[in-house]
Structures are given as C-alpha cells and as structure tokens.
Amino acid sequence: MPDIDLTDWQILLVKILVILTIIPVGALAGGYAEHKVMAHLQHRLGPMYPGGFHGWATTLADGLKFLYKEDIIPTAADRRVFALAPAAIFVPIVLVYLVIPMDRALVVEDLDVGIFYLLAISSLSTIGILMAGWSSANKYALIGALRSAAQLIAYELPIVLAAASVAMLAGTLSLVGIVEAQDWPFALWPIGIGQVAFLLFTIGAVAEMTRVPFDMPVAESEIITGPFTEYSGMRYIFTHMFAEMGHMVAFGGIAATLFLGGYKPVVPWEPLEVVPGVVWFLAKTMLMIFVFLWIRPTFPRVREDQLQKFAWKFLIPVGLALILGTGAWVLYV
Amino acid sequence: MAVDERRIEPHADEHDARLAAARRPGFGLGLLKGMGVTLKHLFKRNTVIQYPDEKQDLPARSRGVIALKEENCTVCMLCARECPDWCIYIDSHKETLPPKRAGGRPRKRNVLDRFAIDYALCMYCGICVEVCPYDALFWSREFEYSEYDIRQLTHEKERLSDWMSTVLPPPELELGAEMPGMPSAPAARAQGAATVEATGARPATTTSSAAEARPQQAAGAPKEGTFATEAARPVESLPADQQASETAPERATPEPAPGLEAEAKATQMEPGAKTVPEQGSPATERGEPEASATDTDRAPSGDGAPADERADREPPKDGAAQAAGAPAAPERDAAPAAGSAPAPDVQVPQVEVPIEPPRPVVLERTEDPDEVYRTVLAEQLEKGSSPQVAEARAKVARVKAERGIPRAPTPVEVDSPVPSAPTQGAPREPVQAGAPRAEEPEPEQGPVAPADAAESGPAAAAPSAPADGGESESPDATYERVLAEERAKGSSDAVAVARAKAARVRAAKGTRGPGG
Q: Is the C-alpha dihedral spanning B489, B494, B497, B503 positive or negative?
C-alpha cells in the first residue's frame, strides 16, 4: 500500500467523512434491524418485499420516498425555528460520534474530557426537541415537546451518575482511557457496582432516546409523533429516522465503550486478541442495539407521571448511592 | 336455605391470593420474564403464511363463493326471497311438457332463465345455501375473485356453475354424530335398556309399588322445570333391587326422569301429533313411556283413567318418541353412569313449570260439509266478494264442517273500518296497495250533510262484482260518495278524506282495489 502522507487536517477530514457515512448507513441498517427484529420478536416477519431478499432495502426505500414528499410548514409556525429544529436535534448526535473509539486508533479525536463532552453535547438535543414542538403551532406538539423535555432532563441524571461512576473506576474521563482500564468489562467486574451502573445507564439511554417504554412524547397512538407531528419529508427523516437511529447507535456505542470493554475482547484471553478491535466494538454495539430493540415490543408504555416518579424517586437515589459505593470502592480497594 | 357464598364465588380465595401475589414487588423479575417470552418467539420458526406467494389450506367448510348446480334448481325462489341483501336475481318461465302417456295431463315445469348472485352485495351469511330445499347452492372455498369493475362482481349462472368445480365433497361427520331424524344405534340400545330399567322399577299393578312410585314421582314432579342433570337424580334415587329385569313390556308408569326430556320434546311434537288423535293401536314400548310420563308427571292420580287416552295418543307420539329418544338417550346414558348417590347438598331452586296436557278434542259433525259449502258460497257472492274469495271461504267452511270444528259465521258485517273487511251492501273503497300516485292538491271538501250522505250512500251502492271499476260514476262523484260513507261510518276526517281521495284516483285510473 503506497505511503499516503496526509496532514493532520486531511486525516481529520477523512475521519469526519467516515463518520458522516457511518451515520446514515447505521441509521438505515438500524431501521431495518428495528423492523425485522421487532417483527420476529412478535412472531411475525416484518418487511419482505423491498429489495427482494427479506426486504433489506426497506429503509432505503423509505428514505427515498421521503425525499420527494412535499415540505409543509404550517402557516402559523415559526418558520426559522421550525427549520432549525431538526438540525438542533441531529447535529449533537453527530458530534457524539467524534469521541467514540472503534479501535485504539480509530477515534476521530480522543478528548481528555471524553465522557464529559459526550454527556454535555448529547443533552443539547433536548433544546432541539423543544424548538420543534414549540414552533409547530400545534398544541399536541407542544405537549409532546414539554413531556420530552421533562423526560430528557429527568433521565439525564442517571446517565450522568452511571458515567461518573465509570469514570471513577477508570480514573479518567477519556473514552480510550476507560476502555483501556477495562481488562474485564465494567459490566462484569466490580460486582454490585458495575452491574448497577450498567443497568442505570441502559434505562437512562432508552429514556433519552424516547423509546418504548418511555416514549410518551412520541406515543404514536396518542399524540401522533409528539413534537415532530408537523414535520414532513426530509425534515421528518432528520428528526426521526436519523435522530432516533443515530441516537441508538451512538448510545449503543457509548454503552459498549463504558461497560462492555469497547474494542477489547470481552474476556482478557490471549487468543481473542486476533480479532480486530473494530469487530469487537461493532459486535458489542450491535448487542446493545439489540437490547434496545428487544425492550420495545416487550413492555407497555410508561405513563408520564410513572415515568417521572421512576426517574426522580428511584433511579436518581440509586445513582447517588452508586456514586457513594464507587467512591468507597475506589478509595479502599 | 341460606345462600352459600362459596357457591357464588367458588374461587374467591384463590383470586385474592393471586392478586396478593401479583402485587408483591417483583424487583424487575417480571420484566425479565417478559423479555424471555419475546426472545423465545425470536427463535421460533415463523408461522406467517405469506399471501399471495403462499396460500393457506382453508378448512373444508370455509365460506367463499357460492356455486350453483343448475340441474338441481327448480326455481322455487326461496334463496332469492330469504336473502337478506336481495342479491340473488332469478328469472324463469314455465314450460308445458307433453303428458307422459296418452290422455294424461300436460306437465308444467319451471325453466331457469337467469340466476345471478351479486357478490358486491352478498354478505356470505349462507342463508340461501341453508334454505335451498334441492341442494342447488354450495359453498366453495374460493375467495379470490376481486374485480376492478363492480359490475363484474355479479356472477351469472354460467360463472356460478363454473364455481361448482371448486366445491368440495361434504366433510366427514365427527365420530358419534347423529344424523337428523335417526336415533343412533348405541343411543337406541341405551334407551331400550333404560326403558327396561324404568319399567322394571315399577311393576305395574301392585299398589305398594305404585304408592312407592308416587312419592318419587312427587319428588320428580317439582323438578319438571329443570333438565336432564336434575332428572338424573330420580333415576339414581331408585334402589338397585327395584331394577329387576322385567322383560315384558309392561304398561307401567316409568319414572318421570326419562320421560322428562322426551316429554319436553314430545310436547313440541304435539301440535303435529294432534291431527290424528283418534286412531288407536296397541301401545309400543317406545311410545308408552313418553305417553304415560306426560300424565303421571302432572298428577300422581290413579293410572287407570288416563290409560285409555294414553292408548290413543301413543301412535302419533311414536314418531315423536323416536326423535326424542335419541337426544334423551345420551342423557339417560349419563344418568346411570353418573353414580349411584345423588348430591343432596347441592340445592337448586325448584321451578314449577305447569305443562298442559294435550287434551283430545272430541269433534262431531253437525252439518253436512257440502251443504255448508253451498251456503257459504252463496252468502259470499251475495255480499259481493269476488268469485275466488267466495270460493275460498266456502272451501274453508266445508273443511271445518268436515272436521267438526265449530266455525264462526263467515263475516259479512264488521264494526272496525278496516278497508279490506267485507262490507254488506255498500262496497267499501279498497285501499290501494303501494304508494298512491301523487295528485294535485285538492281543496278540502266541506262536511257533507248527513241527509245527503245517507241518500247518496245506498243509492250509489253498486255491486262491485262487475270489473269495470268505476266508469259508471265520475271520479268526483266517487270522492263524494266515499267521503260520505266514511263520515257516516264514523271515521276521522283525515282518514275519510284520504280514503275518498284514494277512491277518486282509483276511479280515474279504472283500477280495482282488493275486495272489489
């Protein structure tokens, strides 16, 4: 292979392009996985026709369909905010991909404040959702947006607390550092701490993505699509398909990194080192995505008040206790 | 007897326990169980039948399209009549065929011209298939006949006949299914055994056993209203030694139990059986239990007096008993098998259902039927009925006279102003069936002076026998006349005006109404 000598910014550009490719492809694949996996969990088949072989081109067809849909903006809507909202939702998700390491060297930028950056940026999506709901000039969109905002704020905390516990265990905020610190994945090792943190993070992530069972804001049978009711065509794709699928892949990746050992083999066994780190990472991410998909057809929707109660009265106290426990562990073990 | 709550909610305790168990915190284990269920389905072989690439093998009795077997159709039109949607269109004409042999009567036959089912209307209820007496309509399993043009959904008889090739042969009946009208062999045998038991239980003539039988009858009598399960108890209550094997078919009073179900059905059969009450013939074993059961259930009086009636009633009940025997027999089967001890602690409210005995009607002929026929015919014709109506009424009167049924005098005058009621003398303007033609609004006629009405009434009365229908008087005169008549009769104004208008229209059109 010829020596390609690229300057730093060229390398950065390539990495960004890779990320920008991964996201739509991941969204497409994730969408297809959602259709098929959910279908088989419900003892049915899912899409079979688009593309011929078990409907592999379903999401592609969906995306293309949305391309030629009419872009409708309600008359009473705040046009500028309405147009900016999808961007406000989507961009933070893309930014999250910048720090997730797919292999030791395959990370766009390994920030020293990796986790902190991650959590901060991902919570910016909340503003985008509020923008979408409020500018729609639709009562129900507004209700959905406010529900969503309340939910995202509430469930941000368990995520933060779980991530903080991991950071304490690893001794660093950098994601690569966290992966390196996991000989045994954190989900397995400090018994009582790692599992609780993992559980807390997973539940929080599902709620962050407004997925079932925490999908009150976008409860399809009740509020259509909540804050995104008025969106059509490509705007809808950006707020829904890309945002949700992108979110899923992102959070799956983060969970894999924080708790499952990232690009490291699951168990510290020599022969497993042969498999490239990317494969491990992808496998773990896909496992997490599968868990998110698995939860969806299994549980009924949680009511808004139950949702809030669960977060504030259960998860956050548990998270705080987790921090205490982790601190004790780190200090005395 | 105090009502036992345990009977009303027998599982109340378990219900509470399960509820309590469900309310205990599961610590997320229930959630994991749910996830296990969905995961299990993920790995199961999928049973989705991907239509239209794969088609399901439908059950034999599936209701798809309805097929017509033309050769069976006699154009009785029952299907078209009974169809709730009126989606069957039938046209036919009568053909006369030459007589089969010389000097015979030419035979008439219905020929089917058009038979169409409009599947855009058809609701696939199957009433037409059920009702067809000649098995000309069949269910098929085909359902893929959608069309782009709704007119193509009306299938004509050629297409309906084509569908016959998709009709399956009738599916096998289940094991032990009973054909309608025939008692199945095992059931008949069991009934025979039960009857022997029953007759053996009560030897006919001994008073002691009759006396013994009576309390058991009395015990059985209040339970008339309840059905087989309760009827089983009197059977059980008989001590086993009484069920001596008496071979001779005795005219003994059996228990009320076997007769109950048979009786319930026998009473249904009664109206049919009543028509031939006077024939007597030796009692058969089959007919007898049901016959005597009817009497004894009601009144535990002596068996002697009703015996004659019983003899009379047995043959018609034979058929009834046959049919009733089959359904009764399985219950009797269950009865001996149910065990010897009754369940006295299970209390069921006793319902007294008085069952009317079918009393034989004694009929005598008091008048000569032909004489009656002539009399009534003359009456009716004189009154002004049409010849067909007069003939019909005369025939009815003759039949009634033959049978000795007391008949009311054929109505010639009637109080209520029903338009179709025959009127003596003054021909009543009949009500025109269907919507009357719209006529230009007429100014309301003022009240006609009674004197004029009285005069013009009888004077204008013309025998309605001639079928010219009102050309003899002008429509307006008809209007006046009818109005006067109605008012004289006492109809309300609105009714009188309406009838007068109708009469005028009819007079103008020259039509006759019913009874005219």
A: negative
